[in-house]
């Protein structure tokens, strides 16, 4: 069983703490994605699992075996990096066979492993080509193929799609999902792209400042973020954050007075908070509707972005910079510099206290 367990893992470079007491368990066959902004420690965490760096504190186990002091070659992992790192003078076949030849495996075993991996990745017709004759997506498949032929217990991917254009990244996301389903191996994937995380993960690990902020299934993080950071990071465009103060709260509903004096409600349990506390109301762009009704705001439009399938209106929420984003139907008639009335349901609102932690939501489904 390729269960990966991290217990109190920390990493410091001198006085700089990159990771701080990370506890995590990745189940056998699970696809887990580490996501977070640049510098949050996600790639460092992957390197610790791979054995390319040593933890300052804590322990790492793979398949029930403590590998904290075990060399990378003996951990049963294979890592695919952001750069393809292919040998330019070798064919695709020889690139994929290189590690097995280095291990002095029999030629029949090498040939079977390479051709089987090529079949899985749909690159059998490319085995005689050199890397310079391949597209970016094909090179990435060859890099993955080199990992597959080693038959590892755990696959580690460090932002493997970041060098590809947007269209190719979309296609390769599907390929990664298909590959995981077909191989059924434990996969740990690092990205700063939340779309990749939401698409590929059984569970997402959100990191910030070297600490795990939340671990959960993609929709769990989307619907029930535990703090303001996770709420703002998961979702594109990002969740709208509106400052205000708590006016009244019960176990089912909170009334918030926004900056500017408008009062709105959120279906959250904020009864433990005090009246007058500073809070932040969070409402996702797609949760707004145009027109009067419950929790309505009338704000000037600063910018309109028509994307074909949807239209995004950027409203002036008091800072003059169009920070409130509303997703509207593609045929919505929205005019820049004119006021627009929008509303949201209390059930779609999130509320965060002055400590940035989320109050429990009363979901409407």
Automatic annotation (TrEMBL):
Stretches assigned to the ABC transporter domain: 4-234
Keyword check for Transmembrane: no
Keywords (A to Z) from UniProt: ATP-binding, Cell inner membrane, Cell membrane, Membrane, Nucleotide-binding, Transport
Record's signal peptide: none
Transmembrane domains' residue ranges: none
One Pfam family recorded for the sequence: OB_MalK
InterPro entries according to UniProt: AAA+_ATPase, ABC_transporter-like_ATP-bd, ABC_transporter-like_CS, ABC_transpr_MalK-like, ABC_transpr_MalK/UgpC-like, Mo/tungstate-bd_C_term_dom, NA-bd_OB-fold, OB_MalK-like
Gene3D superfamilies from the UniProt entry: 2.40.50.100, Nucleic acid-binding proteins (2.40.50.140), P-loop containing nucleotide triphosphate hydrolases (3.40.50.300)
GO function terms (MF aspect): ATP binding
PANTHER family recorded: MALTODEXTRIN IMPORT ATP-BINDING PROTEIN MSMX, MALTOSE_MALTODEXTRIN IMPORT ATP-BINDING PROTEIN MALK
Family: Belongs to the ABC transporter superfamily.
Name used for this protein in its record: ABC transporter ATP-binding protein
Organism in which the protein naturally occurs: Brevundimonas balnearis
